[in-house]
TrEMBL record:
<dbReference type="InterPro" id="IPR016454">
    <property type="entry name" value="Cysteine_dSase"/>
</dbReference>
<dbReference type="Pfam" id="PF00266">
    <property type="entry name" value="Aminotran_5"/>
</dbReference>
<keyword id="KW-0663">Pyridoxal phosphate</keyword>
<dbReference type="InterPro" id="IPR015422">
    <property type="entry name" value="PyrdxlP-dep_Trfase_small"/>
</dbReference>
<feature type="domain" description="Aminotransferase class V">
    <location>
        <begin position="8"/>
        <end position="368"/>
    </location>
</feature>
<dbReference type="InterPro" id="IPR015421">
    <property type="entry name" value="PyrdxlP-dep_Trfase_major"/>
</dbReference>
<dbReference type="GO" id="GO:0003824">
    <property type="term" value="F:catalytic activity"/>
</dbReference>
<dbReference type="InterPro" id="IPR015424">
    <property type="entry name" value="PyrdxlP-dep_Trfase"/>
</dbReference>
<protein>
    <submittedName>
        <fullName>Cysteine desulfurase</fullName>
    </submittedName>
</protein>
<dbReference type="InterPro" id="IPR000192">
    <property type="entry name" value="Aminotrans_V_dom"/>
</dbReference>
């Protein structure tokens, strides 16, 4: 069985199509508000005002101050600035950092660089079979010289939802450690209070907005050093001319995804349940995600073939899924997340990820499952 009309996209954790309302506004901005927002003539000042209005609206939606919202080129830059910028600025307080073994590559590589080039010591927390860390693990890892803890809110490969608020409450009440969380897979899908989170990141292209716009939330009491040098843009923390149109539509992008969050969640849970129930009946399949994970991400391994073969077979049928984070897919290395969860290399190399959306239909899921059954049967005979 093959899709009869068009292709089926099931890689929404990688990126999303631009919402029409956002695209229409973005095109108007590109055509009419191309001026440098740092210039001082009238149309440039208008662009500056539009950017600041967007910043203010984002702050209101996330319940932070507007001067705590910083525009970046993406979440990878935001993560790099948050981690490297904080560590270098505050190394006089200590040089011990804590993160997990299942973070996004932009997080892990930042920590690795701090170890290799700047003499920091990093504790990488283990996760259990469900991809979770515990408050107890964090407590045991903390030292007198610990200055930063970074834990992603939702894992981008298996969808495990970390107990961020519980950990952040402890960090804020019992320590002076900076608490950071990568919220790329959370924003617009799950709720999270930023009350006790000092650094938080996300990007608009994961929530039906444009690429090239990331958001860093940095609380007022947190000091960073810039890693991109230039002018005084973004309070001196990120040099270079901002992409004003992308920043202007960021608030609209966030507002629209939040408006439909609950309805979308209910819809996606139904789709997730369809997939889980069907995969449970396939002997060759092992689910790496659980029902406690975000319903938007479903990760499973097929014992009879590696992920590349399965993805290519589905691709030929017009069904698009991935094996791990898009930032790591082309390396053809086993998923570091699944290895950290205790699976062996063969199991990790056979894992694929389906990621869902409010745009995904039950018909698309049914077509996926029928094609998956056919492919598994063909490769088992």
């Amino acid at each position: 069985m093959k899709p009869s009309k068009s292709s089926i996209y099931l890689d929404y954790a990688s990126t999303t199509p631009i919402r029409k309302e956002v695209l229409d506004t973005y095109q108007v901005c590109v055509q009419n508000y191309f001026y440098n927002s740092e210039s001082v003539y009238t149309p440039a000042l208008q662009v500056h005002d539009y950017v600041e209005a967007s910043r203010k609206k984002i702050a209101e939606m996330l319940q932070v101050h507007s001067d705590e919202v910083f525009f970046m080129s993406g979440a990878s830059e935001a993560n790099s600035l948050a981690i490297t910028g904080y560590a270098l600025k505050n190394q006089h307080k200590g040089k011990h950092l804590i993160t997990t073994k299942i973070e996004h590559s932009s997080i892990l590589h930042a920590f690795e660089q701090l170890e290799a080039l700047f003499g920091f010591e990093v504790t990488y927390l283990d996760v259990n079979k469900e991809g979770l860390v515990s408050l107890e693990q964090v407590q045991q890892a903390i030292r007198k010289d610990t200055i930063l803890l970074s834990i992603m809110a939702i894992n981008n490969e298996v969808g495990s939802i970390q107990p961020i608020e519980k950990i952040a409450d402890y960090i804020k009440s019992q320590t002076r450690i900076c608490m950071m969380s990568d919220g790329v897979q959370l924003i617009g899908k799950h709720d999270l209070s930023l009350r006790n989170i000092d650094l938080f990141t996300f990007t608009t292209h994961k929530i039906y907005g444009v690429k090239g716009c990331g958001i860093l939330i940095k609380k007022r009491n947190i000091e960073l050093v810039p890693i991109v040098h230039g002018g005084a843009q973004e309070q001196g923390l990120r040099g270079g001319t901002i992409d004003a149109p992308s920043c202007i539509v960021a608030a609209k992008t966030l507002r629209l995804i939040q408006l439909e969050q609950q309805k979308s969640y209910r819809h996606v849970v139904q789709l997730r349940d369809m997939i889980f129930d069907a995969l449970a009946q396939m002997e060759q399949v092992h689910l790496n995600s659980t029902r406690a994970c975000s319903p938007y991400i479903i990760n499973f391994s097929v014992h009879t073939m590696n992920s590349e073969i399965l993805m290519n077979a589905l691709n030929e049928r017009g069904i698009y899924i991935s094996s791990q984070s898009a930032c790591s897919t082309r390396t053809k290395s086993p998923s570091h997340t699944l290895l950290a969860m205790g699976y062996d290399e063969k199991h990790a190399l056979s894992a694929v990820r389906i990621s869902l959306s409010h745009l995904t239909t039950k018909e698309e899921v049914s077509i996926l499952l029928e094609n998956l059954k056919e492919i598994l049967y063909a490769y088992s005979t």
